[in-house]
Amino acid sequence: MPIAFILTAVVTLLAAAAAMSLRNLVHCALMLAVSFSGIAAIYLQLNAEFVGFTEILVYVGAIAILIVMAILLTRSGETPDKSVLTSGWMAGIVVTVFVFVLLGWAVLNSSALPQTMAPAPHATVKNIGDVLMTKYVLPLEIIALMLTAAMIGAVVIAYREEAPKTKREEGIPIPPRDSLLPPPSPTGEKA
Amino acid sequence: MTPLQICLLTSALLFATGFAGAVTRRHAILVLVGIELMLNAANLNLIAFWRFGPNPEALTGIIFVLFSMALAAAEAAVGLALVIAIYRHKKTSNLDEVKELKG
């Protein structure tokens, strides 16, 4: 294994650890983007070029930005004063260590892993497209349908307007529902 | 260690990092970030097995990872929409305070 792979893996893992442990959520999202870029570099070194570039497009380009947007929309951009860990975090660490020890033991002791290294395959975009349009065309259509449903669902969930009789407007007179003005919002929130 | 084992150990460490974040962090978005890291670890495993497996010409690993990425993107979109909806409803995204399903 070349030294470049080890370095990429170390950078990826350090960025992932930082993304999970920093206090400021915006920093977490940026370290997550670094970690995704490292994973894309690992894919490139494993001869999976198309997957590597897809990783950059989908994860670094879309999901990291989506997470930053969600952080800003929920007003969590500042560093919190209180603890960032849940009440039962010790148990979580214990379970994590157990899971990692189990996985590492299985990887190091399994006899099912292939011992010989196959020659580098060539997965060109043409090959992938051929397979995707012939053998896997039904899963492709299903995944397209599912993405459409997920997009509509996300819009419906996030767009829902509250009835203006919730607790946050105590003491403020409630305008009639058919008023053209939006309901008063003490926090100046915008949907 | 063979190269495959190095890949698998990297992936196991990535999975453990994501799992630790998902179960210990208090903010709902960080839990989603942990889940994304775990999904990426699984994808890395699939690519490693495709690369070092006996029959890489079939491209099954690559196709599986592409579909898995599409699913992860859908999951992230719906999950973040849920976090935003919960924040609007409860004015918090602290998971210790969001305990009941009934609003």
CATH topology call of chain B: Helix Hairpins
Q: In percent, how much strand structure appears in the residues of chain A? A: under 5%
Helical residue percent of chain B?
over 70%
Distance between the termini of chain B: 53 Å
Give the terminus-to-terminus CA distance of chain A: 50 Å
Quick overview of this protein structure:
Chain A is mostly helical and 191 residues long. Among the domains of chain A are: 1-78, NADH-ubiquinone/plastoquinone oxidoreductase chain 6, subunit NuoJ (Four Helix Bundle (Hemerythrin (Met), subunit A)), CATH 1.20.120; 122-160. Chain A is 62% helix and 0% strand.
What does this structure look like?
The complex is a heterodimer of chains A (191) and B (103). Chain A is built from six helices and no strands. Chain A has helices at 3-21, 25-45, 49-73, 89-109, 125-134, 137-159. In chain A, α2 runs antiparallel to α3 (49-73). The radius of gyration of chain A is 24 Å and the shape is globular. The mean pLDDT of chain A is 84. Chain B has 103 residues and is mainly α. Chain B has one domain: Orthogonal Bundle (Helix Hairpins), CATH 1.10.287.3510. The model of chain B has no long low-confidence stretch (mean pLDDT 89). The interface between A and B is large, with 87 and 74 residues.
Task: Based on the model shown, name its key terms.
heterodimer; A: 191 residues; mainly alpha; Four Helix Bundle (Hemerythrin (Met), subunit A); 6 helices; 62% helix; globular; B: 103 residues; Helix Hairpins
